[in-house]
Design goal:
Number of helices of chain B: 7
Shape of chain B: globular
Largest sheet of chain B: 7 strands, mixed
Distance between the termini of chain A: 45 Å
Mean pLDDT of chain A: 87
Largest sheet of chain A: 9 strands, mixed
Strand order of the largest sheet of chain A: 1-8-7-4-5-14-13-16-17
Order of helices and strands of chain A: HHEEEEEEEEHEEEEEEEEE
Low-confidence stretches of chain A: 1-19
Oligomer: heterodimer
Number of helices of chain A: 3
Radius of gyration of chain A: 19 Å
Radius of gyration of chain B: 19 Å
Shape of chain A: globular
Structural class of chain A: mainly beta
């Protein structure tokens, strides 16, 4: 897939909107439609315990729901892509991670908006094109049109700024655990200004490229389902005593703004 | 000067205008000469309470009336207006919107016929643009037909720092605060009675809701604690409390949330679980704790992880 398919998916979902709480059969039919829209006629296998989605059963804030995708060690080395689909969101394909040579695919996490009680699907794609799907139901509503920005002046002032936290490593061959924070409104375009009767235009993170020493960790294609001030937790493959390692994150948003920032990876403590 | 104002205020207590039969006047308490406050119920918005959950009211001067928060729905705003008209026929010149939240603003439409200035923080229009539609839809869901007439009314007079309103023998000093409870909090100081109307910068008994900036709120709380007022009007809880003593429980809660959320972030606890580890000593000390505390910690976490 060279282009993100959210426009197509929006049409698909709006076409099938039903106000009553959908039955399990309707939910299954929606996932079948989404699967076809994203993966065409390719076979999507049940991942069993090889892929898991970690998310709270019930979200305290539907605009800020933490979701982690975990891939079992037996499958992780083969994985090149991860898809996160929020079935009942206006734009269901929330994220597509294209994993590079420096990625450790065993866990990747972000925060999303959830508009209605929904299944989440995570699909892992192997180098040879097999697809493995995991599902999880989550109870949250209102996250997409919910008001953003508790502090609009700060949001504007900080737009595009990034911050990373590195988890402490104890061994040189341990993956480097990184938490990346990006200050961006990631506006959904679903809030209407009651005074002007205009919708506040969408303004969201379109691509995020993370590299380690200029080699790709992942490239993210993303959309309005990612929360305001997006966060990403991921791991970089072990590369020995990485005192010379540099992590770089580069983003492009839907207004074509570009931001880039780099951080040296803290060295492993001497054992 | 002072004496004449007080006499004028006392004179206002005599009903001069008949009660509008359509709208039963809202019960009001005169907490200081010419300052009338209605005590909101300590609950979530519902059809039964018409979103009348906030403390709202009005201040009467020799020439004019200023409404301080018109209430949570058109119905509540109309009842507040009836309460004003039961006491005075002086013009309602100002309707002050202390911040964007629906329980304080949706009554504004009931005052449009008075053609007042709707006074708000300079950041209120931006917040209404972001949130008004969402709030209105939620109000309609919560109140059903009870939401009829409720509309988003944009402010016509903005305060970016300070503004004095003259009601005739009575000066109200408005202050626009930095991001605290929301990013558009206004407070009103009445010089005559030394009353500070803090609205939702101060919660009493009901758990504070963090919807602006936690660190900023503690800062603004310090600042307003220095105001030499005899009493404060909180947005929720008792309608008149001693100042600044009444700020202490809120300060204690906000400080606990800040301190313990920072510790949770440092310990690597995720945003979804953090609330279970934060400010548990405060449970049982606040109404609606379980309804707001998890969201408060989520908001605090998102703010403080940038430190």
């Amino acid at each position: 897939m060279t282009r993100f398919t959210s426009a197509l998916l929006v049409v698909l979902v709006l076409g099938g909107t039903a106000r009553a709480e959908p039955s399990e059969a309707e939910r299954a039919a929606r996932w079948a439609d989404l699967k076809h829209a994203i993966f065409g006629d390719r076979v999507v296998e049940d991942a069993g315990d090889r892929v898991a989605i970690d998310a709270p059963m019930r979200a305290e804030d539907a605009a800020l729901v933490p979701v982690a995708i975990r891939v079992a060690q037996t499958l992780a080395p083969e994985i090149r892509g991860l898809y996160l689909v929020i079935d009942n969101n206006p734009s269901p394909l929330a994220a597509h991670f294209l994993l590079g040579p420096m990625a450790d695919p065993s866990e990747i996490a972000t925060r999303v908006r959830i508009d209605d009680y929904t299944y989440l699907h995570a699909v892992a794609e192997t180098a040879d094109g097999r697809l493995y799907a995991a599902a999880r139901f989550i109870k949250a509503a209102g996250g997409c049109s919910a008001p953003a920005s508790k502090d609009q002046a700060l949001a504007l002032e900080r737009l595009g700024k990034m911050k990373v936290n590195f988890a402490e490593r104890t061994k040189p061959d341990e993956p480097v655990k990184v938490k990346l924070l990006i200050s961006h409104p990631n506006n959904s375009g679903l809030q209407m200004d009651q005074v002007t009767r205009n919708y506040i235009p969408p303004d969201f993170l379109q691509n995020l490229d993370v590299t380690y020493n200029e080699q790709s960790v992942f490239r993210l294609e993303s959309d309005v389902s990612i929360s305001e001030d997006p966060t990403f937790n991921f791991s970089v493959r072990p590369t020995g005593p990485a005192s010379a390692g540099v992590i770089t994150a580069e983003i492009i948003d839907s207004s074509q703004r570009r931001f880039s920032q780099s951080w040296p990876v803290p060295p492993t403590p001497q054992m | 000067m002072k004496i004449s104002t007080i006499l004028a205020a006392v004179g206002l207590l005599l009903p001069t205008v008949s009660v509008d039969a359509e709208n039963l006047p809202l019960p009001m308490t005169e907490i200081a000469a010419g300052i009338f406050v209605h005590n909101g119920v300590q609950d979530e918005a519902s059809a039964a309470n018409e979103d009348g959950i906030a403390n709202i009211g009005f201040i009467v001067g020799a020439d004019a009336v200023a409404v301080i928060d018109p209430g949570g729905s058109f119905a509540e705003g109309a009842a507040l207006r009836a309460a004003i008209r039961a006491r005075t026929d002086r013009p309602i010149r100002y309707v002050v919107l202390t911040h964007v939240h629906p329980d304080h603003t949706f009554g504004a439409a009931a005052f449009c016929g008075d053609h007042p200035d709707f006074v708000g923080h300079a950041r209120l229009p931006g917040a209404l643009a972001q949130r008004g539609d969402y709030y209105l839809r939620r109000l309609r869901i919560a109140l059903g037909d009870g939401a009829t007439g409720s509309e988003v009314v944009p402010p016509t007079l903005l305060v970016s720092d300070r503004l004095d309103l003259d009601l005739g023998g009575r000066h109200l000093s408005l202050e626009a605060h930095g991001p605290a409870h929301t990013d558009n909090d206004l407070t009103i100081f009445d010089e005559n009675t030394r009353t500070i109307w803090l609205a939702d910068l101060l919660f009493v008994d009901r758990i504070p809701a963090i919807d602006g900036n936690l660190v900023g709120w503690l800062k603004e709380l310090d600042e307003v604690s220095g105001i030499p007022a005899e009493r404060a009007v909180p947005g929720h809880g008792s309608i008149s409390v001693p100042w600044p003593a009444a700020a202490e429980p809120e300060r204690r809660y906000l400080e606990a949330v800040a301190r313990e959320t920072r510790a949770a972030i440092k310990a690597g606890i995720g945003i979804a679980d953090a609330w279970r580890h934060v400010a548990n000593s405060e449970r049982g000390r606040w109404l609606l704790f379980d309804d707001y505390h998890p969201r408060n910690v989520t908001a605090a976490y998102k703010e403080l992880e940038w430190e």
